[in-house]
């Protein structure tokens, strides 16, 4: 593949609509093309309406009412929507979106394809399958053997991960119950059946297909007979998990009590030693492990889990104990960052060569340490996971709703599909899948083909490698690093006779920078949390003036109930006593996904930081005034 020549600033409409002329031209083109398409369909057909019909009072009145409703909607959108596109917004995993994906969505939406069935979406079904192959290649999967598709978001993608893991785990048990198939697992105990590796189970499914028994045996798996309480074992999920994992265990009938939480370390990655200890204890007890999750880009901290250690642990369990389990990577937030490690041939680059290229092309400049070696190894090992969740609508810079799931071995789809097996028969020399009925192979039914077109178009313009998405994502990584450095070294902000210190939770693994304000000399963690909650309230939609606010962010609370004592490490570093932590058991933090690509210029960022400090001082002054007013009201009462 040739090296892409690409200007990142030409990809986005821009915070001041700098590329408005091109954007308007292409939107007009999209609408005009659709209008001509309609008009040219069987030109011998007479028009439905005549000019006289269109000038009737009720016709004109309907158009006027339509215009009025759309103007009303526009007013609502402009006054209350969140300006993700602006560098003044540093909050959720959102930023400006690619022009090409927006225009592709509009262009395709007018044709209204439904990717549930090929006959309702002959064009966009193919685009979805191609986009799925793009993502599989990015994760290091063999595109001829893997399978990926678009979902509404990471939640549904995670559901599918649990879905396939559940059905896969129960297949050996079903084989043992079938008279004509049980010889395939003859002599194996239930314990052995519940601890087979994913690949070994899928090899058994091939044998079932050869015997034409697959559908009969599949009916005996959990999809047919249901889940027996606790039989399939435990699902090990980091404490940093997204709440969709709790929902998934509920929806799949496995039960939330069968989630085993894995503690996290001071960087909010899964604690490796504890993970190993928990796994070995379950094995000693004879408890099967249904699956294990690693998170690549935690929702609250942006941390990159030790995927390599999870894969290493599974291999060790297989070799020493004959125990295996399914591995899913929840990379909804961080999945696209893997493009940062790939050359133009989709090859994962060696660490030293990667750093040299970053420096040579000014993707990651001197003074910015990225990636940390642990982060590098985590991304590298993703190719060994059984399935991966990724959200194009996060670090893919594509509009909502665009999630995706990729599965390393496409044979696994037959365990969840609702049509005959052998979905992936090769129909031509290219090995393309033909007429795949997506709706029967996935969790969702009707789905917008426009989303698939948006993802496909983005991948064609911005390749999933270091010279494509790498340049876009790299800008945010650099800015996040600069932001974290500024917070770490920031002098106190003085407001009247009070001083406030800013510090980050930790150095970011890529985009996410968490930080807090602490009043110097105030030992109360409760007051600290209240101060930061109020900062959020005046720097978010909660202020009631989203569009006119001069800085917007998001927030979260790191509590003992979810993280154990890990947040205490940060509380202690901020000078709070153990007694304060034991009393409060939570740290309220401000949460900023620094995804903007508009602050990559060093001088521009310096100006931005200077302005931001002034904004912080103004906000703190506003909070102090509010507190004084509340105190006076209490006295008066």
From TrEMBL:
Protein name: L-2,4-diaminobutyrate decarboxylase
Top-rank taxon: Bacteria
One Pfam family linked to the record: tyr_de_CO2_C
Keywords: Lyase, Pyridoxal phosphate
Protein source organism: Iodobacter fluviatilis
Record PTM N6-(pyridoxal phosphate)lysine, positions in chain: 394
Molecular function terms, GO-annotated: diaminobutyrate decarboxylase activity; pyridoxal phosphate binding
EC numbers, comma separated: 4.1.1.86
């Amino acid at each position: 593949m040739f090296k892409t020549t690409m200007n990142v600033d030409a990809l986005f409409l821009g915070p001041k609509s700098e590329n408005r002329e091109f954007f308007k031209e292409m939107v007009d083109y999209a609408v005009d093309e659709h209008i001509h398409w309609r008009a040219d369909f069987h030109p011998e057909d007479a028009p439905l309406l005549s000019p006289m019909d269109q000038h009737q009072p009720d016709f004109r009145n309907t158009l006027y009412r339509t215009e009025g409703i759309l103007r009303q909607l526009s007013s609502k959108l402009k006054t209350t929507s969140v300006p993700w596109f602006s560098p003044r917004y540093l909050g959720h995993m959102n930023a400006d979106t690619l022009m090409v994906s927006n225009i592709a969505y509009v262009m395709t939406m007018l044709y209204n394809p439904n990717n549930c069935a090929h006959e309702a979406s002959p064009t966009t079904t193919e685009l979805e399958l191609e986009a799925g192959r793009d993502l599989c290649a990015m994760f290091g999967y063999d595109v001829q053997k893997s399978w990926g598709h678009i979902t509404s978001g990471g939640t549904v993608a995670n559901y599918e991960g649990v879905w396939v893991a559940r059905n896969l785990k129960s297949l050996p048990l079903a084989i043992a119950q079938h008279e004509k198939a049980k010889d395939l697992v003859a002599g194996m105990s239930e314990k052995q059946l519940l601890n087979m590796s994913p690949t070994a189970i899928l090899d058994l499914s091939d044998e079932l297909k050869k015997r034409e028994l697959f559908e009969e045996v599949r009916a005996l798996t959990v999809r047919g007979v249901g889940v027996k309480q606790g039989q399939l074992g435990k699902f090990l999920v980091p404490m940093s998990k997204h709440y969709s994992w709790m929902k998934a265990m509920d929806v799949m009938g496995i039960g939330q009590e069968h989630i085993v939480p894995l503690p996290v370390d001071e960087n909010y990655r899964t604690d490796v030693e504890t993970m190993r200890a928990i796994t070995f204890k379950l094995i000693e007890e004879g408890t099967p492990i249904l699956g294990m999750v690693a998170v690549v880009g935690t929702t609250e901290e942006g941390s990159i889990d030790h995927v390599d250690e999870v894969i290493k642990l599974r291999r060790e369990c297989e070799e020493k104990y004959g125990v295996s389990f399914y591995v899913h990577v929840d990379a909804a937030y961080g999945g696209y960052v893997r493009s940062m490690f790939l050359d133009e041939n989709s090859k994962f680059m060696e660490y030293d060569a990667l750093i040299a290229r970053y420096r040579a092309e000014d993707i990651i400049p001197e003074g910015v340490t990225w990636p940390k070696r642990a982060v590098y190894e985590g991304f590298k090992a993703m190719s060994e996971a059984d399935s991966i969740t990724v959200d194009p609508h996060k670090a893919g810079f594509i509009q909502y709703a665009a999630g995706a799931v990729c599965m390393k071995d496409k044979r696994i789809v037959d365990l969840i599909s609702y049509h005959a097996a052998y979905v992936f028969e090769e129909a031509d020399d290219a090995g393309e899948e033909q007429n795949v009925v997506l709706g029967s192979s996935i969790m969702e039914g009707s789905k917008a083909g426009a989303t698939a077109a948006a993802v496909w178009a983005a991948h064609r313009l911005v390749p999933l490698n270091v010279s494509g998405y790498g340049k876009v994502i790299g800008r945010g990584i650099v800015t996040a690093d600069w932001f974290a450095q500024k917070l770490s070294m920031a002098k106190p902000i003085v407001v009247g006779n009070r001083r406030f210190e800013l510090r980050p939770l930790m150095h970011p693994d890529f985009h996410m920078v968490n930080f807090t304000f602490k009043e110097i000399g105030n030992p109360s963690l409760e007051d600290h949390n209240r101060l930061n909650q109020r900062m959020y309230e005046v720097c978010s939609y909660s202020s009631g003036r989203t569009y006119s606010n001069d800085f917007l962010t998001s927030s979260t609370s790191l509590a003992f109930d979810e993280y154990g004592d890990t947040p205490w490490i940060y509380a202690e570093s901020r000078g709070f006593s153990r007694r304060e932590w034991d009393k409060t058991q939570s740290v309220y933090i401000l949460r900023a996904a620094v995804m903007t690509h508009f602050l990559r210029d060093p001088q521009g960022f310096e100006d931005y930081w200077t302005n931001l400090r002034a904004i912080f001082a103004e906000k703190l002054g506003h909070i102090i005034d509010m507190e004084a007013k509340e105190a006076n009201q209490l006295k008066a009462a």
